Amino acid sequence: MATPALPAAGASSREGEAASGCGAEGASACDASAGRGGLDRDLGWGLGVVFRAYVKASGAAMVDVPGGPRGFQVLAAAAGGGPGTQLALARQLGIDRTVMTYLLDDLERAGLVQRTPDPNDRRARRLRATAAGQELLADLHDRRRRVEEHLMAGVDEPDRAALRDVLQRMAVRLDAVDPVAHACSVAEELGAGAC
């Protein structure tokens, strides 16, 4: 499979950063932030912008994967010995179990995962990545790395590591306090209607 191209990361020189006093994004970032009315210091605004950019870039990078980035997560869990059953994985990823069934149908048709009866509970299905799924997963990890490189252009490595660490700790804590049964419940809570 050909790897989809990512948008080019905005390059800025160190000289431009120093002259503008606006960091890695240069004077244009300062000009743009002036019209935000202080939103550039708002956590929700910042998380929303980064999330939208991540969804867009990862969707483009994984357009050929059944289920896109969500399909990647399912494949990675199946390959890495994540929650063994289809239902447990759906719960962990916050995917409605019916949606998970359709997603697994697509991944199985593509020859990337295999479902087998759980020896302890024949009603449950265990997941595993096939050889083709393992091969694609190696390429997908590289694609994900390039997406992250694109999004973090201009951020030095210590700050990248700190960001990953803080976000991971926040995510683990918040998921333990308020786990999402399925993504549709979040949309319903926000008044966006049913999925």
In short:
This protein is mainly alpha-helical and 195 residues long. Helices cover 59% and strands 8% of the residues.
Structure description:
Strands 1-2 form a two-stranded antiparallel ribbon. It has 195 residues and is mostly helical. Among the domains are: 86 residues, Orthogonal Bundle (Arc Repressor Mutant, subunit A), CATH 1.10.10.10; 43 residues, no CATH class. About 9% of the residues have low confidence. The chain has nine helices and two strands.
Task: List key phrases describing it.
195 residues, Arc Repressor Mutant, subunit A, 8% strand, mainly alpha, single chain, globular
How would you summarize the topology of this molecule?
Layout (H helix, E strand, L loop, with lengths): L13 H7 L6 H8 L8 H19 L6 H12 L6 H8 L3 H13 L3 E6 L2 E9 L1 H21 L5 H21 L5 H7 L6
Please provide the ordered H/E string of secondary-structure elements: HHHHHHEEHHH
Uncertain segments of ≥5 residues (pLDDT<50)?
Answer: 7-23
Would you identify the CATH H-level superfamily of the domain at 66-151? Winged helix-like DNA-binding domain superfamily/Winged helix DNA-binding domain
Shape: globular
How far is the first residue's CA from the last residue's CA? 31 Å
Mean pLDDT across every amino acid position: 79
* Total beta strands: 2
CATH architecture of the domain at 66-151: Orthogonal Bundle
CATH topology of the domain at 66-151: Arc Repressor Mutant, subunit A
**Name of the CATH first level of the domain at 66-151:** Mainly Alpha
The rounded Rg comes to 20 Å
Percent range for β-strand residues: 5-15%
Q: Main sheet: which strands, in order across?
A: 1-2
